[in-house]
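question for whoever is on the cluster today: can someone run the full assembly for these? two chains, 858 residues total. i dont have access anymore since they changed the login thing
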Amino acid sequence: MGHRQILAALALALAPFAPGAAAQVAVRGGVIHTMAGPPIEDGVVLLRDGKIAQIGPRDAVQIPAGFEVLEAAVVTPGLVDARSVVGVAGYYNQKKGDQEQHEDSAAVQPELRALDAYNPREALVHWVRGFGVTTVQTGHAPRELVPGQLFIVKTRSTTADDAAVRPFSAVAATLSNAAKRSDKSSPGTRAKMMSMLRSKLIEAQEYAAARKAADADSPPARDLALEAMCAVLDGDVPMIVTAHRAQDIASALRLTREFRFRLVLDGASEAYLLLDELAAARIPVILHPTMKRASGDAENLSFETAARLSEAGIPFAIKSGYESYVPKTRVILFEAAVAASHGLGFEGALRSVTIDAARILGVEDRVGSLEVGKDGDLALYDGDPFEYTTHCVGTVIEGAVVSRFERGQPVSGPYNPYQKRGR
Amino acid sequence: MILALIASALPALPQPADPPPTAFVGAKIHTVAGPPIEDGTLVVVGSKIVAVGPTADTAPPEGATIVDASGKVIIPGLICTHSHLGGTAGADSSGPIQPDVRVSDSLNVRDSGYRRALAGGLTTLNCMPGSGHLLSGQTAYLKLREATTIEDMFIRDADGAPMGGMKMANGTNSMRGGTFPGTRGRSAALVRKQFIAAQEYAQKIEAAAGDPEKMPNRHIGLEALGEVLSGKRIVHHHTHRHDDIITVLRLADEFDFRVVLHHVSEAWKVADEIAAAGAPCSVIVIDSPGGKLEAVDVAFRTGGVLERAGVNVAFHTDDGITDSRLFLRSAALAVRAGMTRPAALRALTLSGAEMMDLQDRTGSLVAGKDADFAILDGDPFSVYTKILETWVEGERRFDRADPQDRLYAEGGYGATHDQDPYYCCFGDDNQGDQD
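^ ran it for u. tokens below:
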């Protein structure tokens, strides 16, 4: 192979990965789960300039000349992970190297932005993308009372700014043992956690009132933490509260009754004990990974909680969450699969990682289902996506093919599709 | 006399005092000893399998309880070669090498983890201390029998002694400084020194030739290592990185001990070398790479790569790293990445038995072996399949139709209330704070 051929091969290999290189792509699927109507048998999705241009049965969709054609047995929307730390937490798990998910200098730091901490080229981002995940809400881990902000990002390897869907999507809070400080500082008890949250929210109310009352020439000094809490009080973003025990879930409900913010419950191992309360308060749930370890605050979790939430009509998504050790991240495709087999069923499980997750995140105008005008984000499989032995054979983000077969391991550097594959 | 010998050589035949036989009729039976039997019958008497074969050729004995198993799938009870269930706590932080410690002295027989393991189809466990030491103590081979004390779960050898291996580890977990090593070179040096001490101790015992006056003072750690040197006790060795794996093989060659390589995240890089050494591998399957430096290259394809290289492969749960209730899933993910189905099922059963010297009693469904098996409602490697029943030595130990058993299978309020496993090597950063 001469130099010119090598260069040509490289160009071909790298083209789909260049930022903004949205090719014109047609995806043929034996079954297309649009999540916006019944599945389409033997269908086609046309992606033009990164958006879905047309979708329908094969004989109703003309594939224009020059379109790259991908084929797969099963096609779904790109998966949406409603709460993760990938990209903020890295796979090496070295505290001073790649762990940006936990700033332990103070218990309440809502001003910490996920956008400033996210590495779009992190190997764990590549890893989940290889299983069809195209959108994640990621950021600070539930290890402090208010550990920081979350943001919503596509799993593309561009900059965080380019890939962001919402640069600031939520303030995270934690009502569990994980929020207790290991030194003698606060909070050290559950009651103190609630007291500190109340105090911060009241401070933010007063800050907003003072800014409103002040004349334009002499506004009060800016406070980034209070500005973030004001965004919660104003309803611009939700507060996503991680709570597993029923008593902590009840505390989160109490807090939102007092301050009228948008509450999204996260983790929620014992949600099955409070189905009526959650349904009455119309609180969406970002449910723990189905295979999360049953220990600590989450010792009473069940494989069947997703099914219980579904039966109760409570909107929910299944997340990858936060892992501090091994595995360093979970994969929502796998977590939804186990929920599917434990009472939730195929349709409910797929919804929990596509359209229902998108709705809880408020990004359903762009992702979560395959409809004309939405982003061209798709996942391709060679069988039932949830079966252990099925492969994710392609992932497409905004019309760009970001993976073409299931990889056995991640790549932290530029991905070379011509590298030796296994043995 | 001759008749008596023949009778005692055929323990599988029902004797007049035996309990009535039970015949499971019409199931698809994966014996692991041969190809699957599409319409099979399994006959159990007491704690043993007395017959297994195609239903057409396997008439249930007279008086047998007939269980209609049509539409069901029967597999051998699963064997986990590496588990931390029961609150395992072996060596403490006083030093890196503690062969005197027996994990069986730490196990809580009432731990709900054992019930969850049964819900996962497991019947046999190798329970072991953690990997924060070069050598963290003696492991315990357990059957998940109904038990009041841990002794009720012991698997005993021909002399009646509880069976177990020796847990060792290399790589970063045991590199903790202080009295522990700080480098890989020092790790291997400390192990060499210890094995030389064990060799010298064994030589003194041999030289004493039974004379109590000449016997060395008893040292229970060196005695246990003597069992390693004699081949009676197998080393179960935590090792991840390719060069650490090779170091284990080097030490096993130098001191001539039997070793099973555990976890082996990077075994796919040195599969031929492992095959040449004849070392079996017990593989962990993890949902994502990383979490620690040694596991960044962990890959679903390890099982298949080792299979093709001719290595004897088992899987393990490392429970609580992965959940025993989902042990079938570990093998299924290996199938996803290229392992054959028969090898993957063997890796959950008979191969694990071989790595614990238990292949003559469990791990496959053949007459004469222990009646350890699980009844499934479908393909063992489908996510949609449920384990319906688990039988240990002829006793039904898990029944999905039983509400209490179902609680352990699915989880829920009160399903888990255990003493925490003791992982002495991991700091607060790595305990109980996942979300």
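summary bc i know u wont read the tokens: The CA atoms of residues 92 and 217 of chain A lie 50 Å apart. Chain A touches chain B through 64 residues (CB under 8 Å).
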